[in-house]
Prior knowledge:
CATH class: Alpha Beta
Structural class: alpha/beta
CATH superfamily: Aldolase class I
Radius of gyration: 16 Å
CATH topology: TIM Barrel
Bound molecules: D-xylitol-5-phosphate, zinc ion
Distance between the termini: 7 Å
Amino acid sequence: MRITPSILNADFARLGEEIARIPSADAIHIDVMDDHFVPNLTLGLPVVESLRRATTTMLDIHLMIEDPDRWAPGYAEVGAESVTFHVEAAHAPVRLARELRRLGARAGVALNPATPVSAVENLVRNVDMVLIMSVEPGFGGQKFLDLVLPKVAAVRKMIGDADIWLQMDGGVSLETIERCAEAGADTFVAGSAVFRAEDPDRMVQALKHSAMNAANAKGTVA
Ligand code: DX5
Ligand code: ZN
């Protein structure tokens, strides 16, 4: 079970300090948005390069951008350990995933809430992580969409015993994380739940605890 807090709801003027507040995080989830693939604009490569120098924690890049085939490899080149692109945006997803791995990063593929799991069926063996969006991408603080839970279970089945992470992103909190873990997710993005908490690191620990308990009770992943 991994908790990968999103810095989208952190103070962008003090990102280095914000990351230092959550030492229990398994990775830092960084949402890159281009105002084309999603209706919001966040940050890009220069900021990720600076964050790479500011922390040794794993960087988990979530690219909500058009033409990831062109832009994603740059994030692996600056040392991000995980780079996730959207299947809806990639022109040659298999080639892109292989390129990311060749550059030493874990390759991830993301699906929007309305994208069927069949879109990644032939891709799963070429990636290290599948990210299932549980809100429409673009903004933090939205309400969790339960309708994606059957997709989580379907992707868990597809993955089988392979060492491929299954990440949920959007509206994950103490209220929703148990049903995500029960459905088979093992990696959880939480933005507002963590950065709006009084003690963000304690929230990271509480989320992990909750996910582990739910998975153990259900007998899904450990
Ligand atoms: C949304 C982003 C998420 C977002 C999650 O488009 O991909 O990573 O920051 O924020 P919460 O946890 O507040 O939904
Ligand atoms: Zn994200």
